[in-house]
Amino acid sequence: MAQAVRFHETGAPEVMRWETVDVGEPGPGEVRIRHEAVGLNFADTYFRTGLYPAPLPAGMGVEAAGVVEAVGAGVPHLREGDRVTYTGSPLGAYSTERVMPAGSLIALPDEIGFDTAAAMTMRGLTASYLLRRIHPLRQGDTVLLHAAAGGVGLIFLQWAKLLGINVIGTVSTEAKAEVARAHGCDHVVLYKQEDVAARVREITGGAGVPVVFDSIGAATFQASLDSLARRGLLVCFGTASGPVPPIDAMQLAIKGSVFVTRPALADYIADPAERAELAGELFGHVAGGRIKIGINQRYALEDAVQAHRDLESGRSIGSSVFSL
């Protein structure tokens, strides 16, 4: 029998339970996968708290890597023993094994380990679409990135450096500032001690930045708007501190005819061809050593409650995984 983390009600980390589950055999268009490593993402907490609705009871987690153990009918592109990774629905990645839609799986190159894949698939694809799809960034552009020492942030910083993009990154502590600098952050702002928008204006000679990448949400929304150049774009791709406030359209005009978008990774990997292109570039950089994936926190899967406590406390740096 397999084991999995599930929740029967929304709330604090303690609502998660370690349970024995019956996985069963894959049906048409499905495979059974044995997990070798599972990703821990801040988005997982959104489902647990109910910010993102899910039918209850539900599994937890959207990212893992492992080996295909059985293949259902109508799946010509996968076979038993294939190494795969994935991110996205349906919930249930916090498990030792599970049945998955075959179309959700991404072939994992031999050069990339399972732990690395679980630490980078969601974060790396997020950094990929942010840098390659959201806005036509040019070499020499300067952008603002909140949570620069987070899992997405550290991949984003390295990729931006490859593209010749300058990054102003915000972090909460000097320890995180050192990590961000080591990964290529050009200017670090300690947001608990400094006025973020004022520092951005100072660094950019008063102009502001063409794009702000904000995964924090409520706590940083105003500073993000105030950091934009005329006709700049605020990309709200996460809500770690809570949802952004209602947007007053007139304020967007007053701030310089700025734009706000709230993208979701799912809409940038829904097309198999686009997902393959984004993943191929990401995997190529990682396999080639141009982007390094640091795993700074490791947990046993049955310790998911503690993992979520650490994640929500802000103590985590970079990527975290459950190693099986």
Work out the count of structural domains.
2
E-strand count: 16
Distance between the termini: 15 Å
CATH class of the largest domain: Alpha Beta
Helix content: 25-40%
For CATH, the homologous superfamily of the largest domain is named as Medium-chain alcohol dehydrogenases, catalytic domain
Query: Sheet with the most strands?
Result: 7 strands, mixed
Named at the architecture level, the CATH assignment of the largest domain is Alpha-Beta Complex
Work out the helix count: 9
Element-level helix/strand string: EEEHEEEEEHEHEHEHEHEHEHEHE
**CA radius of gyration:** 20 Å
Tell me the structural class. Answer: alpha/beta
Characterize the quaternary organization of these chains.
single chain
- Which stretches of 5+ consecutive residues score pLDDT under 50? none
At the third CATH level, what is the topology name of the largest domain?
Quinone Oxidoreductase, Chain A, domain 1
User: What is the global morphology?
Assistant: globular
